[in-house]
């Protein structure tokens, strides 16, 4: 059985809906993990994607976050939010808010989590500590599935570049988030828990970045970062036949600032 699984930070599913529908038709993933919906659960365009054969499980509040899984393989055991997921205490809030940053489901033979890891903002900001706590919780949550025989993967926007090779110029990020030792240690902890980074294979470019800022011609100049990742257990990784960044989806007007990452499995 061939299964195609993808992840994409869509940067507003409402604004990018035509791009999303076009890409679903051309790439035809069996399962797609989306992040940064920027819409509420009820406002997701379920009917539009259903016309292409996808059921959707979404989780959003209509603000900056939000995650979803689209599947042609059905759904079982859907979970919204990580168990014991930490919340973030904003400056103007009385209590921490658990943001819609994770949704898990079993889709046919594969179990997946779609995750949108907190950005971290600045190293000395409370959001950075929240990010590290969030990643620690993710590690604890995935242990059992990572050790299991069923193909399992965590896909999404991790907001961490795993190595210096995953940014266009590491010197440009000195003192900034996304490349710090604690953030990268959190990714290493996921590997120690039983997951491995499924690396996309480069096509035209040696470094298969997944995100490019809208400003300063970052995409044409390939000044990007690889922060959209697929972390799979052994059963998942052993089944991979191909993995790539679909740069074509980043081209043109009205696109997300991220590109989809596609992984093909033979199960």
The count of helical stretches stands at 5
CATH H-level name... which superfamily? Endonuclease/exonuclease/phosphatase
- CATH class annotation: Alpha Beta
CATH architect. name: 4-Layer Sandwich
Strand content: 25-35%
- Integer count of domains: 1
The CATH topology label is Deoxyribonuclease I, Chain A
Structural class: alpha+beta
Give a quick account of the main beta sheet: strands, pairing sense, barrel closure: 6 strands, mixed
Number of strands: 14
Strand order of the largest sheet: 3-4-2-1-14-13
Query: What's the SSE pattern?
Result: EHEHEEEEEHEHEEEEHEE
Using only C-alpha atoms, the radius of gyration works out to 17 Å
Write the SSE topology.
Blueprint: E1 2-9, H1 17-27, E2 31-35, H2 46-50, E3 55-59, E4 67-71, E5 76-80, E6 102-107, E7 110-116, H3 126-147, E8 152-157, H4 181-192, E9 196-197, E10 211-212, E11 224-225, E12 228-232, H5 234-238, E13 240-245, E14 261-266
Parallel strand pairs: 1-2, 7-8
Antiparallel strand pairs: 1-14, 2-4, 3-4, 5-6, 6-7, 8-12, 9-12, 10-11, 13-14
Helix pairs in contact: 3-4
Q: How would you sum up this structure, described in words?
A:
This protein is of the alpha+beta class and 267 residues long. The chain has one domain: Endonuclease/exonuclease/phosphatase (Deoxyribonuclease I, Chain A). 21% of the residues lie in helices and 26% in strands. It has five helices and 14 strands. A six-stranded mixed β-sheet has the order 3-4-2-1-14-13. The radius of gyration is 17 Å and the shape is globular. 43% of the residues are buried. Pfam families: Exo_endo_phos (PF03372). Belongs to the DNA repair enzymes AP/ExoA family.
